[in-house]
Amino acid sequence: MTIFHIAGDWSDNGYLAGRDRLPIEVHPDGKITDPNPLAFPDDELYCRQYGQDCPIITNGIWEFMIDTSELARVGLTPTQMIV
Hints:
By secondary structure, this protein is mainly beta. It has one helix and seven strands; from the N terminus they run ββββββαβ. The protein is globular, with a radius of gyration of 12 Å.
């Protein structure tokens, strides 16, 4: 498991809400989790992309719009949600 701090933008109801870095833990099987010890242990994060929109990391409640260059750096491939 490797912890990365990825750059991107937070969104609030689809609007930009601020730029920051998000810590994520990438497991060998490709699973993404929150390394924060106060996070729920089974709270899996997902890397998704809707059509040509920017890729996001989400837990289903919040969305973090990850910079495209960060995807290659951490070895993530977003799941395309619109086919």
